[in-house]
Design brief:
The chain is an alpha/beta fold. It has helices at 37-45, 64-79, 91-102, 116-154, 161-171, 176-198, 207-245, 248-254, 259-298, 302-312, 316-341, 347-379; strands at 2-5, 12-19, 22-31, 52-62, 84-87. Strands 1-2-3-4-5 form a 5-stranded mixed beta sheet, covered by helices on one side. Helix 7 packs parallel to helix 11. The longest helix is centred in the last third of the chain and has 40 residues, at 259-298. It is elongated.
């Protein structure tokens, strides 16, 4: 039998031996915290073969640190697939080793403490980066749509007339009732609130101009665009997203059909055509609602109402609102189709991107409206 003796601290001594039945590690001396470094290193470097016996018969002193090292050595050997056991341990040493084994229960790792201010800055940075990437992708999608439109104008046979007419009906004709009703009610509210406030200054007659200018320049077309964004923009995203999940778009490409021509262009053109018409209806219904409320609250007859509109509300206010309609429609259609083409994975993605498209479309409509309002104010139009 060959013996190997550790040359470390005299307080903790371990001797390794090899036999046909396996490997033996004979523990000697005082295994206390002050002299365990060398013995611990020797145990870590030991590479036994076959069953292992940790012989504690010559162990004189043992504290918790020493017991942990011995227990950990046995645990590591068992993890390696070797049979390892203690032998010849004194009762008090065996009890300490048992207590160490019982308490070998790793507790949950505490999550790292982070700085709240840094987290806020990181979220803001990530949001700005994501918004920039989204804007760049949307700008590229706009260029692709314009290129597709250019090909369709150069070769009208490439334009899909049946989908165009279908979407005109869906986004235009079918939206008339809700647009008309809401615009009528907004006209009523504006007239009532305007009359209430202007009466304090004896200027309630100017309620007509207040309603007309507000509806024609801003509220009529802006409210219509928001309704269309929530109604049609979300429908575009859901429809195209569902088609992508069902691999219908991949099937189109396999058949040499361009999804931009088949899906995107008819929807965008339908919105560009329908939204000015809906805006006109919204303006008329808003003025009609204002006229009804002025008649009820202020005794302004319909004839007087129309006379003041003709004398004091120039037609330019109407054109200021209608000019915005194609730009609003382009934003709504682009965002709705773009987000639909981003759908992937599962139906959850359809719902998430549908919500995202509505929020983005309404945000962009308000941004474009603000730009137009500033521009018209600067040129005094």
């Amino acid at each position: 039998m060959k013996q190997v003796q550790d040359k470390g601290s005299p307080l903790a001594d371990i001797r390794f031996s090899h036999a046909a039945s396996g490997s033996i590690a004979a523990v000697h001396g005082h295994w206390v915290i002050s002299g365990l470094a060398a013995a611990d290193a020797a145990l870590r470097q030991w590479r036994p073969e076959g069953p292992v016996v940790l012989d504690l018969g010559a162990l004189e002193r043992l504290d918790t640190a020493g017991a942990w090292i011995l227990y950990r050595a046995r645990k590591d050997l068992r993890t390696q697939g070797l049979k390892a056991d203690f032998a010849n341990a004194q009762p008090d040493h065996a009890a300490l080793l048992a207590r160490v084994e019982i308490n070998d229960r790793p507790g949950p790792v505490e999550p790292p403490q982070s700085n709240s201010a840094l987290n806020v800055l990181a979220e803001i940075g990530a949001g700005m980066s994501g918004a920039f990437m989204e804007a760049r992708a949307l700008l590229g999608f706009l260029g692709l749509t314009m290129a597709t439109l250019g090909r369709a104008i150069a070769n009208p046979s490439r334009l899909r007339w049946t989908p165009l007419i279908y979407h005109l009906e869906a986004v235009g004709f079918n939206a008339v009732p809700i647009v008309a009703l809401i615009s009528f009610l907004i006209g009523v509210v504006l007239a009532y609130q305007g009359a209430t406030q202007l009466r304090q200054f004896g200027a309630e007659i100017f309620t007509v101009e207040l309603v007309a200018i507000s509806v024609l320049r801003e509220i009529g077309i802006l409210l219509t665009a928001i309704i269309v964004a929530g109604r049609s923009g979300s429908a575009f995203t859901a429809q195209i997203g569902s088609m992508k999940l069902n691999e219908e778009i991949d099937a189109m490409r396999t058949l040499a059909l361009d999804p931009m021509e088949m899906l995107v262009l008819p929807r965008v053109l339908a919105l560009i055509i329908a939204l000015p018409m809906l805006g006109f209806i919204a303006d008329m219904m808003g003025l009609f609602g204002g006229a009804i409320m002025c008649w009820i609250v202020l005794d302004i007859t319909p004839g007087l109402y129309l006379q003041r509109l003709n004398e004091w509300v120039p037609l330019t206010h109407f054109w200021v609102g209608i000019i915005k309609a194609p730009f609003f429609a382009l934003m709504i259609g682009l965002i709705g189709c773009f987000e639909g083409l981003q759908v992937e994975g599962s139906a959850e993605s359809v719902g998430r991107l549908t919500t995202k498209s509505v929020v983005e479309a309404i945000f962009m409509v308000i941004v474009v409206d603000a730009i137009f309002s500033i521009y018209f104010a600067v040129i005094e139009f």
